[in-house]
C-alpha cells in the first residue's frame, strides 16, 4: 500500500512538472492530433476558451438548481500590461453577469491581476473588479494560492475588503497556519471558502493531502465557521468528507448561509444529489486559454483521474 501511495505521489509530481513545462506545452499545441486529444481531456474541467462558453454552462447549471462562480483561468502574471488585460476580462465577466442576470460570483487569483507586480497596482485592479462585481449585484471570491503567497493574499484581501466588505476569501485546511488565519478572517463579514488545499507543499507547512490530520483540520475549521453563523462555502468533491460533514453537523448544513461548492467536472452527480437533498450548491466554472496548466493540475490532485481522461478519449474516438 505504501508503495502504491508513493507511486501516485510520483505521478502527481510528474503531472505538475508537465503543467509548468512550456516546451512540452508548445510541442502539444504544434501537433493538431495531440492538441485535439489534450483539449478533449481539458474539456471536462474547462468550459471553453471564451466567456460565452462559461456563461452557457452557468445557465445550464442554474436549471439544475446550482449557483455558480466564474473564473478566467490564470495566475502568476509578472507583466504589468498583461495584468491590465486580464483585469479587463474579469470586468467583462461582471458586465455579462449584470446583462444576463446570471447568479454567479467571480473568483480570481490575485497573482492573476498584479499581486506579483506591485501592491498598489494589484489593489487598483482588484478594486476595479470588485466595483464591477458590486454593480452587477454580486461579489468577488479571492482564491487560495501556494503557501509562499498566503501572507500577500490575505493582506491584499483585507485591503480590498476595506472598501468592498462583501469580498470573500479562501482558506486551505491542510496548511499548518490556517487555524490562525481563520481567527484572522472570521471576524470580518463576507463569505469564507474552505478547501482542502491542492498545492504541492512541504510537510513543514502543510499536512499530507488526504491524510487523517488534513480531514480533522477541515472538520474543525468547518465547525468554527458553521457555529459562528458565518457565510461558508464547503468546497470539496470528496464524498467521504461530505458524509463526515453531514454526520457531524446534520441539519445545520441546511442553513442558507452554508453552501457545498465543487469545481466543474469533479462531482456533478454528487452536487446534483446534494441539491436534491435541500442543500445550497454552487459549481465553480472556469474558462480561458490557459487550460493546459489548469487541467493538468486537476489531474495531479488525484492521479487516478488519468483513467477518466483515457475514458474521455475513448468516448471521443467512438463518437
Describe the structure.
With 319 residues, the protein is of the alpha/beta class. Helix content is 54%, strand content 13%. β6, α10 and β7 form a beta-alpha-beta unit. α1 (2-19) packs antiparallel against α12, α3 (32-42) crosses α12 and α5 runs parallel beside α6 (119-135). The longest helix is centred in the first third of the chain and has 21 residues, at 80-100. The radius of gyration is 19 Å and the shape is globular. It starts with a helix and ends with a helix. The mean pLDDT is 88.
Short description:
With 319 residues, this protein is of the alpha/beta class. Helices cover 54% and strands 13% of the residues.
List keywords for this structure.
319 residues; alpha/beta; 8 strands; 54% helix
List the helices and strands and how they pair.
Elements: H1 2-19, H2 22-30, H3 32-42, H4 51-63, E1 67-72, H5 80-100, E2 104-108, H6 119-135, E3 140-142, H7 150-163, E4 168-172, H8 178-185, E5 192-195, H9 212-228, E6 232-235, H10 239-249, E7 258-263, H11 268-276, E8 280-287, H12 291-301, H13 305-318
Parallel strand pairs: 1-2, 1-8, 2-3, 3-4, 4-5, 5-6, 6-7, 7-8
Helix pairs in contact: 1-12, 3-12, 5-6, 6-7, 9-10
Amino acid at each position: 500500500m505504501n508503495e502504491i501511495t508513493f507511486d501516485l505521489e510520483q505521478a502527481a509530481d510528474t503531472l505538475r512538472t508537465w503543467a509548468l513545462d512550456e516546451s512540452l506545452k508548445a510541442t502539444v499545441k504544434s501537433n493538431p492530433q495531440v492538441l485535439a486529444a489534450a483539449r478533449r481531456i481539458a474539456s471536462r474541467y474547462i468550459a471553453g476558451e471564451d466567456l460565452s462558453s462559461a456563461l452557457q454552462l452557468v445557465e445550464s447549471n442554474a436549471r439544475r438548481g446550482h449557483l455558480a462562480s466564474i473564473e478566467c483561468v490564470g495566475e502568476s502574471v509578472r507583466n504589468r500590461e498583461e495584468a491590465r488585460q486580464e483585469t479587463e476580462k474579469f470586468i467583462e465577466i461582471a458586465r455579462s453577469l449584470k446583462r444576463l442576470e446570471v447568479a454567479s460570483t467571480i473568483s480570481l487569483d490575485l497573482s492573476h491581476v498584479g499581486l506579483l507586480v506591485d501592491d498598489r497596482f494589484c489593489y487598483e485592479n482588484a478594486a476595479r473588479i470588485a466595483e464591477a462585481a458590486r454593480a452587477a449585484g454580486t461579489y468577488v471570491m479571492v482564491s487560495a494560492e501556494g503557501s509562499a503567497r498566503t501572507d500577500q493574499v490575505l493582506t491584499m484581501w483585507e485591503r480590498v475588503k476595506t472598501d468592498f466588505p462583501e469580498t470573500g476569501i479562501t482558506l486551505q485546511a491542510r496548511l499548518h497556519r490556517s487555524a490562525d488565519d481563520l481567527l484572522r478572517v472570521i471576524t470580518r463579514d463576507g463569505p469564507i471558502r474552505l478547501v482542502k488545499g491542492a498545492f504541492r507543499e512541504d510537510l513543514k507547512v502543510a499536512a499530507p493531502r488526504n491524510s487523517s490530520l488534513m480531514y480533522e483540520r477541515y472538520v474543525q475549521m468547518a465547525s468554527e465557521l458553521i457555529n459562528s453563523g458565518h457565510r461558508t462555502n464547503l468546497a470539496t468533491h470528496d464524498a467521504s468528507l461530505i458524509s463526515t460533514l453531514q454526520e457531524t453537523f446534520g441539519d445545520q448544513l441546511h442553513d442558507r448561509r452554508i453552501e457545498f461548492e465543487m469545481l466543474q467536472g469533479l462531482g456533478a452527480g454528487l452536487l446534483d444529489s446534494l441539491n436534491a437533498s435541500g442543500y445550497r450548491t454552487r459549481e465553480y466554472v472556469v474558462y480561458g486559454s490557459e487550460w493546459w496548466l489548469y487541467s493538468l493540475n486537476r489531474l495531479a490532485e488525484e492521479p487516478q483521474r488519468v483513467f477518466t481522461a483515457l475514458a474521455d478519449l475513448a468516448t471521443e474516438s467512438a463518437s
